[in-house]
Design goal:
Elements (H helix, E strand, L loop, with lengths): L1 H13 L4 H5 L22 E5 L17 H13 L14 H12 L6 H11 E8 L5 E14 L8 E4 L6 E4 L11 E7 L4 E4 L3 H6 L6 E5 L2 H10 L2 E5 L4 E9 L7 H7 L10 H10 L1 H8 L6 E6 L17 E3 L10 E7 L5 E10 L9 E8 L2 H7 L3 E11 L7
Parallel strand pairs: 3-9, 3-15, 12-14
Antiparallel strand pairs: 1-2, 2-16, 3-8, 3-16, 4-8, 5-6, 6-7, 9-10, 10-11, 12-15, 13-14, 13-16
Length: 404
Amino acid sequence: MYKIFCLFILSLFFGGCGQEEEKQQEKTPSLSIEHPEEKADLGPDIKLVPAQFKDLKNWYRDDLIKAFPAIKASCEQIIKEKNKYMSNAELKVPTEAYQHACKKMFNSDISTSAELRFFLDKVFKPYLVMDKSNPNGKFTAYFESALEASQTESLGYPYPIYGKPLDLIEVSLSDFDDKLPNQKIYGRIDAKQQKLVPYFTREQIETGKLAAPIILWAKDLVDLHIMQIQGSAVAKLENGDRVRIGFAAHNGHPFTGIGSILLSQGLIDKEHASMSEIRKWLKKHPQQAVKELRKNKRYVFHRIASTTAPVGAHNVPLTPQRSLAVDKQYIPLGSLLWLETTGPLKEPIEQLVVAQDIGGAIKGIVRGDFYWGSGDEEVLEQAGKMNSIGRYYILLPKTMEIVQ
């Protein structure tokens, strides 16, 4: 079976590779910078425009020290990173340059916002991130949700919270050839067909048997789905204990937001498309909710987490309103970003954040999901309303080489 799997993978990845592809030279520029006088591209889409810190809105008023725990946590991960470029993102930031800056920060005696501002001004330079010629993108917010759960199945707790399935296979394309994209596919071995096939969809998982551990049983299907969207939750157990549930894996199918599903069916209007309003609609229409939720084929698996805060994709605890989920295909995890957008009440959000997480719906060069924090209805109400236009600057070490 293993030999068959290997042959399948090799034929899948290399069957379409021709002689022209073999002749192409590997491109490894450090970055693409767009100057007012001249332009240079890293691929067709990403551009960076050099800026100064005085150009950043609220730069001199932001309480930067609130972001310091997030910066230090990501720096610890960056120092351990072995890749030549951070996160192997398309925006090729040399890992060594960020490691040098992180070590310099750890050796500095920083305890106030003024000291951190002085350090960043001395060591980093901001660049406006642009998608082709557009600096603007969509910014939403997410949160650590809450749900009621039990350690045993019962009529009151009928919905399994699955851990990572035993038969789920994760394949990194670049492991087979570094010319292949830095992308993962997910599947399972079909014994009859003797080949790797896509993993089960949400509907197949919820209506069939799954070779996966059950870590807890949920009381409400809607809250379970919201936890999968957010990636984590705090579970309130029957005995009063609280258990943190974290992200473990997903089934590899594309994510479709329940809001867009309900809007396309005419079941809600744009004025009621916030997460809190969507949750109310789903709970009010439980039978139809099951049907509509299954249109999102993405299914998330979880694990019991021992941390005191939710952990993001950069494997560090998330910091409320200082951690940002990005598309790591473009933006390296651990990057310092200056975010300029508006919150759920149209209040300005102009502050330093760290790229520490990812999300199924977070796709694009200028796209972010602002981590709001943990809580129940109030946090959901605030985070669920945020849907703003904004932009960000990436802070890059001054010591790094820039290929123009």
